[in-house]
Amino acid sequence: MGDVAADLSSVCFESGLNDEEKNLLYLRARSAGLTFCGCAHAAFMYELVHSLRCAIRSHTADRDPAASTDDSTEDRDLCVGILGLGHLGKQLLLFLLEKTSIKPSHVKISTRRPEAAVEFVQRGVECFFDNRRLAAWADVLLLCCLPSHLPKVCADLHSRLSKHCLVYTFSSAVPATRLSVLLGHDYILKPQYEFLTCDAADLWLSCTQLTTAFTDPLLIEASCPLTMKGGISLGLSWVCAVLYSLLNTCTSASLSSSEALSLINNMFKEKWENTVQFNAQSFISSSYAASLPSDKPFPWISLTDVQTKETPLLRFLSSSKSVLQCISAAYKSQLETPAELHRNTPM
């Protein structure tokens, strides 16, 4: 059935605004763009970590069949916890279910209003109100709570997170360094979006209907982390932090540095048919790389430091246009592929 009010300008949102209020309409587009980009980038991060975990599991099984029967963290599917189910939390969960390989049984939600998650519970997502329980279970914890709730949430979670639990936060009000102190945890990834003066910002207004927006090739193109459009930008340090999280995933699985590099490079080649050639010097200093035996793992990297300091990887990516193009192509391919195909793709 058609919208009988579609052509009636008197009932549209803008009709009730005065001239001063209309000057602030760009904030509506900005909010929609932030939500879309935040969800899309988190989904891409998830798919990278999940794909690498699957590759590690396969590699470990080939190297040592007995190890594949162990109930270690790396031998199970990636578990994602979403803390907070307001507007952002709902949009993020919908995005993950529709655009990634994640299964509903591998997502849990902690929210003060579990009854608001009925539509997701019916799809197989478990929902409750227990932040500590969620943190103890999750491999990736997505913080979607309001900034005003963050101090209480951090107090609940302080010193209760596994060292290998990746905390992904959307709160722009709290720097990653401060959040690290509040949580007693340094494995934190925080996208830092910036706003630019741009006449194309209105393109994000179509994001108000996310179920159709995340299939729009124009929006997927505009949200690409390395070439963002529409008045929003994301620093290269976010991409660095995501790639360092892949390195940490290999370190937590006790893989050697040579195995880690091989798996990361092959993941881009096999999953997205992109040739990326990282070496030890891409991630760590030349002097450290020279002294690191190929059969020893990389050191654990603090993502908090990665996002606040210049790193070898930042310098490498800044001078490697081909690698950036490969990462961009992988991002677009990920979002343009239906979730069903992701779930049916052998790892």
How would you describe the overall organization of this protein?
By secondary structure, this protein is an alpha/beta fold. The chain has helices spanning 19-22, 26-63, 87-99, 118-121, 131-137, 150-157, 176-183, 210-213, 217-222, 236-252, 257-272, 280-283, 286-291, 303-306, 312-318, 321-336, 339-344, and strands at residues 80-83, 107-110, 126-128, 140-143, 166-169, 188-189, 193-195, 232-234. The strands form 2 sheets. The protein has a 6-stranded parallel sheet with strand order 3-2-1-4-5-6. Strands 7-8 form a two-stranded antiparallel ribbon. Helix 2 (26-63) packs parallel to helix 10 (236-252). The relative contact order is 0.13.
- The tally of helices reads 17
Please report which band the strand proportion falls in: under 5%, 5-15%, 15-25%, 25-35%, 35-45% or over 45%: 5-15%
Strand order of the largest sheet: 3-2-1-4-5-6
Main beta sheet strand tally, sense and closure: 6 strands, parallel
> What class, by secondary structure content?
alpha/beta
Percent helix, as a range, is: 40-55%
* 3D shape: globular
User: Which residue ranges are poorly predicted, with pLDDT under 50 across at least 5 consecutive positions?
Assistant: none
Question: What is the average of the pLDDT values?
Answer: 87
N-to-C order of helices and strands:
HHEHEHEHEHEHEEHHEHHHHHHHH
Tally of DSSP β-strands: 8
Give a brief outline of the structure.
This protein has 347 residues and is an alpha/beta fold. The chain is built from 17 helices and eight strands. The strands form two sheets. Strands 3-2-1-4-5-6 form a six-stranded parallel beta sheet. Strands 7-8 form a two-stranded antiparallel sheet.
